Amino acid sequence: MDGDAVVSIIVPVYNVEKYVKECVDSIINQTYKNIEIILVDDGSTDSSGKICDDFAKIDERVKTIHKKNGGLSDARNEGVKYARGKYVSFIDSDDYISPYFIEILIKVKEENSCDFVLVYDCPSFWDGEDNTVLAKNADDFTAEIVDAKTGLQRMFLQNIATGAPFKLCPKEYFEDIHFPKGYLYEDAATTYKYFFKAKKVGIVYSELYAYRMRKDSIIRQQFNEKKLIVEVIYQQLINDKMVQKWDLTKDAYSRAFSLVFTVFLQIPEDDKVNMQKLWKYIKQSRKYVICNSSRYCRRKNKIAAMISFSGMKITYFIGRKIGQKGSMK
């Protein structure tokens, strides 16, 4: 590969031998060819690392990095260190993308002079279901250009995708934005900061990224106390000085509420100590969710906030009864 790759695609890899080939194949087959593909083997104990090495042998754009296990954030940060592209895009190793993913994002960014671009939403599917059909040509999209403040508000209100994938950002963003090592829900503590570096943001409407939902994924596994990191992220979001400067604290409360409420419902019924820990944040933030008049406010959050006034026990019961559909948002 020459040294002029425009886009560095970073793929953290950990024990995904069942999925990683499909993921990397979808990246190699991008219609936009001026890319480098950085596969970060985060100490896999299955054959994932070997599969990555095999790809590096057959495509000079592929580079494999093997490292001691440090978690998703650490793997993404490590990949950025090796990135030589002007732009960076993260892809999760159990997902896959349309052949036109990079071509469309680059087109929207450059034709509209956006600072960064993101996909509005993505089709999701449970592991084991038939593969999702993605965009089949380079014109299969529409785009909306918004100012950075509007974009961030919509992200906080979960109107647009919140995760680290689904985006194309200048590499320079990551000179001072790093994924917090050891965190679960690390995207919530990180991706909102992109907007502070931007003026214009492109939102792409197209089915470009297939998001696989796995019941054994870290986020969907049974509750453990590592998930209480949402307390730290909650405080970070509502106390962020730039969020306050942009007058978006009420919207940050909505994102924080959603994060805490999700983990609250995962806590075992007999674990009243941890339920009480998160319940106080639900009570603190629910009024901001209910009173948020933005048309982008997530209906699901408003309903949860209103139910919470019936008390912790009933809220927990109803929330668990209804269940939570997995989502990339």
What brief labels describe this structure?
eight-stranded mixed β-sheet, three-stranded mixed β-sheet, 11 helices, 11 strands
Alpha-carbon Rg, integer: 20 Å
Rounded mean pLDDT score: 94
Uncertain residue segments = 325-329
Number of helices: 11
Strand % is 15-25%
Give a short account of the largest sheet: 8 strands, mixed
Query: How many E strands?
Result: 11
Shape: globular
Alpha-beta classification: alpha/beta
Order of helices and strands: EHEHEHEEHEEEHEEEHHHHHH
Strand order of the largest sheet: 3-2-1-4-9-6-10-8
**Residues in helix, %:** 25-40%
Terminal-residue CA separation:
35 Å
Summarize the structure.
The protein is of the alpha/beta class and 329 residues long.
Give an overview of the whole structure.
This protein is of the alpha/beta class. Helix content is 37%, strand content 16%. The chain has helices at 20-28, 48-58, 72-82, 101-112, 148-156, 229-239, 241-245, 249-264, 272-290, 299-307, 312-322; strands spanning 7-13, 35-41, 62-66, 87-90, 96-97, 116-119, 124-126, 142-147, 167-170, 200-205, 209-213. The protein has an eight-stranded mixed sheet, sandwiched between helices. Helix 2 links the parallel strand 2 (35-41) and strand 3. Helix 6 packs antiparallel against helix 8 (249-264), helix 8 (249-264) packs antiparallel against helix 9 and helix 9 (272-290) packs across helix 10. The longest helix is centred in the C-terminal third of the chain and has 19 residues, at 272-290. It starts with 6 loop residues before the first strand and ends in a 7-residue tail after the last helix.
